[in-house]
Amino acid sequence: MPQRDVVSWIAVIGGYAQNEFVEKALETFKQMRLPAVMPDSTAFVSILPACGKMGALTQGMDIHHIIIERGFFSDVVVVNALIDMYAKCGSNPRNPPQRLRAGSITRTLPINDLIEMADGFAGVFPEHKYEIVKRLQDRKHICGMTGDGVNDVPTLKKVDIGIAMADATDAARSASDIVLTEPVLNVIISVVLTSRAIFQRKKNYTLGFMLIALIWRFDFSPLMVLVVAVLNDGTIMTISKDRVKPSQMPDSWKLKEIFATGNVLGTYLALTTVIFLKIVQDTDWFPNHFHVEPIKDDPYKIMAALYLQVSIISQALIFVTRSRIWSFLERPGFMLMCTFLIAQLVAFSTSKAYGREGREAEWARSQRSMSGLNTANPKSMIEKAMERAGYTELSEITEQAKRRAEIASLIKGRFHVDCGEKNPGDEDSYFKFLVQTKVLDSPVKSEPDEVPDLNEGSVWEENSGWSDAEDRGC
After folding, report:
1. Which of 13, 42, 89, 461 has the fewest CB atoms within 10 Å, i.e. is most exposed?
2. How deeply is 113 buried, as exposed, middle or buried, from its count of CB atoms within 10 A (0-12, 13-18, 19+)?
3. Which residues does 368 contact at the CB level (< 8 Å), separation at least 6?
4. Pick from 343, 347, 307: which is nearest to 234 by CA?
5. Are 64 and 32 in contact (CB under 8 A)?
């Protein structure tokens, strides 16, 4: 080798060991020590599996002494490889007693290290399960456990993820976080993948919401601010149905990364919007280069351009934050694409008055209600059906009769004429008020221009009309 350092020797030893050239790996390890190159923990972890595969107990014991001399006996990874080597050499028919040597090494390890590097436990009691979980949690591990009996309840409550089997007791089910519906363990893989996908969506939502919140707040009209907020939040909420890939490793909250990314991208987007506003207001750069109509003298057009710019960058930002790799390499979900397209259609719309017809109709209805022409409440389905059936005229006559009775009762209390004295002025005012409010029709009998003289005799009577005595309060 042109360059003989520890890394080069380890690469050669590892290559031989992984390709089943065990003897060459051991020979290379011997040659490594000749130039006085000191092996490190990676070299020991690479050569010990080769000794176990070959059953080379003598070479393994020599490496064991080197490990002690070099002070690597407290390294959990190295000790684990050493135990594995002794176990494999002990299973060799030529060296049956050597399995005990692996046990003696195991007993010298601290209990926490032994629990952490172990792949499984056998012959344990319920209290041992609880202790194992507690020690692993003390070392900041996230623990999960399956159980089916009453004796597993304390441990199922202690672990971070308690999983009850399909045939578990009611006590185990109530103490668990997940209850399997099938009597197999492979469904746990689906549970883990689903939880990681949910976690990925939550992280995308948090990052996207935070970036949008950092975008510069412009002096929009209240309607534009409301539309931007509703459309952005609506698009962000569809991230919960987004098409994502679960991570290969367990996830954890990296708040520093989220805050740093949010600050950088949020500041960048805010600056681009401010620069865009400055160019549009103070220069003719866009008309000169793109031959478009200048809008710097029209504040409403500037506001519309700013809304379009903010809408596009805030919506496009969601596609950037939803993926940890290049955004165009992962296809987004159908609902996310639909909400994005709806938001952009609203942004590019040329309509000048959304809901104008509805507002005008509501204003007319309220004015008619204030004038007593119709009720403020919308018509019921029965009333609409009656109108379709030809009962409109009958309904209007009934409504007019009702109004006349109500107004007449109010007027009688307001205009009171004493029975013993005649005051033609009061009668005349009373009559004119009734005609103006359309409680009475115009007092015409045979001739259109014939108007009765209210100052002579009693008040006008027609058919069953009101009499002089009745409407004077007698």
Report:
1. 461
2. middle
3. 374
4. 343
5. no
Give the integer Cα–Cα distance in Å for 14 and 47: 7
- Contact between 73 and 79 under an 8 Å Cβ cutoff? The reply is yes
Average pLDDT, the chain: 69
CA distances from 32 to 19, 56, 390 (A): 19, 18, 107
User: Residues 135, 141, 142, CA angle at the centre, nearest 5°?
Assistant: 115
Strand 161-164 relative to strand 144-147, pairing: parallel
Place of tokens 């009209």: 221
Tens of pLDDT, residue by residue over 155-182, are: 999 999 899 988 899 999 999 988 888 8
164 bridge partner residues: 147, 179
Residue 200, both tokens: 């990925």
Q: Say if CB 70 and CB 39 are below 8 A apart.
A: yes
Half-sphere exposure of 347 (CA within 13 A, CB side): 23
Angle at 135 between CA 133 and CA 139, to 5 degrees: 110
Q: Strand, coil or helix: what is 266?
A: helix
Instruction: Tell me the C-alpha distance between 378 and 369, whole Å.
Output: 11
What the block records as the tokens of 454 is 């209210």
Instruction: Give the per-residue pLDDT at 156.
Output: 92
- What per-residue confidence (pLDDT) applies to 404? 72
In angstroms, rounded to a whole number, what is the distance separating the alpha carbons of residues 158 and 168? Answer: 17
Look-up: residue for tokens 């005229």?
393
Q: How far apart are CA 85 and CA 81, in angstroms?
A: 6
CA 442 remoteness from chain centre: 68
Coil vs helix vs strand at 23: helix
pLDDT digits (tens, 9 = 90+) for 23-77: 777 777 777 766 666 777 777 777 777 777 777 777 777 778 778 777 776 677 7
Token digits of residue 360: 């005008």
Alpha carbon distance 357, 60 (integer Å): 90
SS3 per-residue string spanning 145-176? EEECCHHHHHHHHHCCEEEECCCCCHHHHHHC
Between CA 472 and CA 474 the distance in angstroms is 6
222 pLDDT exceeds 70?
A: no
CA contacts within 13 A on the Cβ side of 29: 28
Going by pLDDT thresholds of 50, 70 and 90, the confidence category of residue 436 is low
Task: Yes or no: say if 153 and 135 are a contact pair by the CB < 8 Å rule.
Answer: no
CA distance 253 to 437: 73
Take residue 358 and report the two structure tokens written for it. Answer: 């509805």
Handedness of CA 43, 49, 51, 53 (dihedral sign): negative
DSSP for 183-201, written as a single string: SSSTHHHHHHHHHHHHHHH
Largest CA distance in the chain: 144
